[in-house]
Specification:
- It is a single chain.
- The chain is an all-alpha fold.
- Helix content is about 75%, strand content about 0%.
- The radius of gyration is 33 Å and the shape is globular.
């Protein structure tokens, strides 16, 4: 017998032992083995037909002929009525996404092993794949809850998982409300209701249910963290943080609560406080690579590169799964330290994956900054990738050309891509901006209007067209309407607020302009927003405030041509 055949028969022997353990026993072992009656598993006589069917199922599955394997296992389950075979049939059928066969196998499993909570959970999960069988799911789960009093808490906590594949979350909420009705004195029932309610976008009902759960079990950490999440999603981040902080004060040893608190601080953009919390966690677990990564990222966000770089390198050396993300961040830190060569070294170590394209674009940008524009373009053109990534690379190449004042070449490059994909939103937007810089206003307007017709909710297309008209003092009422539409689509966007302020100023309404520009600058102190804000302040005879804004912005953006030009125009240095 050759070695391949030996391995095959050995593997089949193990498989038979799994499905028919009685046949894998020696005579001596049989004497000591429990009887079929004592185990509740039906005794089996291994017929030639059964062995053939079993081998057919396993070999077909190994060869990728899943349909044959499913049918063979289902036939075997029907013949043997063995719960182990039925379970295996369910697994194979679910792998093949054959819900009909999976349902039939699960029914056999429940019939022969009616006390099995696992079998009922599996059946509910299978049935939940089709909303038309929700009533059957409800019946199965109601029976599971009623017949398993010793496991009722666990089953209640798993209810929502049984309906994970159902799209109609309102229907799911109704079913879970009905299933939990007999158990409302249990906090787990209220928790299940809270989960179902938030999945159905009913935050009020979810919060009410979780409060009832906490009324029944006041210091339940899982419910406290769930409520904090609800509060954060309801624009009450301070209340969420306070809730977790009070729990930590009562339970300073709770690592889960501390991690949730630190993450909440990050979401609230309180980076300094978040880093302090993650540092405390890291002090207690100095070898935790996830905590190294978190403290490193927050340190980088706070421009504390001396702390960030070694922590990120430690996380990398500890085998953190986000290795390429760490390398990308280390490259960015090197850039911020004006270490171009160090940055290039890090970027070149980023492997193929979701960070690879970003790294290649940064490599090209650094090469261009070193005066190697042609080498930068060749680098981008050499990257092998799919159509979406290629588009990103071409847009990045156009940005490099634009930065060098070669807008005409950039537009030619993007036009070449547009000929391949004439309705691509990104290409239309970029080409319109390049056309505007070249004074080709008809081209710009035509492409932006085409983009708006393709994507009526593209806020930045409305804004770009409105701002371009306002900046030239053209069709100001139309410009205001376009920017207003952009603000409706994206309220609070600082750049759109800046545009609205600028069109108000062009219309002669400096007071309204000032309100928009001050809000925009408070949200994002961009140099162009600062230039506009200073000019409006100057027109209101607030020259000192204008000068202060310009100097403040210039200190943060010393290379800003926009700021230098506006200050020179008004005689400021």
């Amino acid at each position: 017998m050759n070695r391949t055949l030996s391995l095959l028969t050995a593997g089949l022997g193990l498989a038979i032992a799994f499905a028919f353990p009685a046949f894998a026993q020696t005579a001596d072992a049989e004497a000591d083995a429990p009887s079929a009656e004592s185990t509740g598993i039906p005794g089996q006589t291994l017929t030639a037909q059964m062995l053939y069917t079993f081998l057919l199922a396993e070999i077909a599955g190994a060869r990728g002929e899943i349909g044959i394997s499913v049918q063979a296992y289902l036939d075997l389950a029907q013949r043997t009525r063995d719960p182990r075979i039925a379970r295996r049939a369910v697994e194979i059928a679910l792998f093949a996404r054959n819900l009909s066969a999976a349902t039939e196998a699960a029914r056999i499993w429940i019939d022969v092993e009616p006390e099995s909570a696992e079998a009922r959970r599996v059946m509910a999960g299978i049935l939940s794949g089709g909303s038309g069988q929700l009533e059957q799911v409800q019946i199965q789960l109601a029976r599971l809850l009623a017949e398993s009093p010793d496991q009722i808490e666990n089953h209640l906590m798993g209810l929502n998982r049984a309906f994970a594949r159902i799209d109609d979350k309102q229907a799911v909420k109704g079913i879970i409300d009905r299933l939990t009705e007999p158990y409302l004195d249990l906090p787990e029932a209220q928790f299940a209701r809270a989960q179902a309610a938030i999945a159905a976008d009913d935050a009020i009902a979810s919060l009410a249910a979780i409060d009832l759960a906490l009324g029944l079990r006041p210091d339940w950490e899982l419910a406290i963290l769930f409520k904090a999440q609800l509060l954060a999603q309801s624009d009450s981040p301070d209340a969420a943080l306070q809730l977790i902080k009070e729990h930590i004060d009562r339970h300073p040893e709770s690592q889960n609560a501390r991690v949730a608190y630190a993450r909440g601080l990050v979401s609230a953009r309180r980076f300094e406080a978040a880093r302090d919390e993650f540092r405390k966690l890291l002090d207690n677990a100095p070898n935790d690579r996830d905590l190294m990564y978190a403290v490193g990222l927050l340190s980088a966000q706070l421009d504390d590169f001396d702390a960030a770089a070694p922590l990120l390198e430690q996380a990398l050396n500890a085998g953190h799964p986000e290795a390429d993300g760490i390398r990308l961040n280390l490259g960015q830190i090197a850039e911020r330290r004006d270490d171009s060569e160090g940055a290039l070294r890090w970027y070149r170590t980023v492997e193929h994956g979701r960070h690879h394209t970003d790294a290649q674009i940064r490599i090209a940008a650094l090469l261009a900054q070193q005066g190697k524009l042609q080498q930068a373009r060749e680098h981008l053109q050499s990257v092998q990738a799919g159509p979406d990534t290629i588009k990103r690379l071409r847009l990045a190449e156009a940005q490099l050309l634009r930065a060098e004042g070669r807008e005409a070449e950039a537009l030619e490059l993007i036009d070449g891509e547009l000929r391949k994909a004439p309705e691509d939103p990104d290409l239309l937007y970029e080409s319109s901006m390049l056309a505007e810089q070249l004074g080709q206003l008809d081209v710009m307007e035509g492409r932006l209007r085409k983009l708006i017709s393709l994507q009526p909710d593209h806020a930045h297309a409305y804004n770009a067209l409105g701002y371009s008209l306002a900046d030239r003092g053209l069709r100001l009422d139309e410009a205001e309407a376009l920017i207003g539409r952009a603000l409706e689509l994206t309220p609070g966007d600082p750049f759109i607020l800046d545009s609205m302020g600028w069109v108000n100023f062009r219309q002669g309404d400096a007071a309204t302009a000032l309100a928009h520009l001050e809000k925009a600058y408070s949200l994002h102190p961009d140099p162009e927003i600062a230039a506009h804000l200073g000019e409006v302040l100057w027109s209101l005879n607030r020259q000192a405030d204008a000068t202060r804004i310009w100097n403040e912005a210039l200190q943060a953006h010393p290379d800003s041509t926009v700021l230098k030009n506006i200050m020179q125009r008004f005689g400021q240095r």
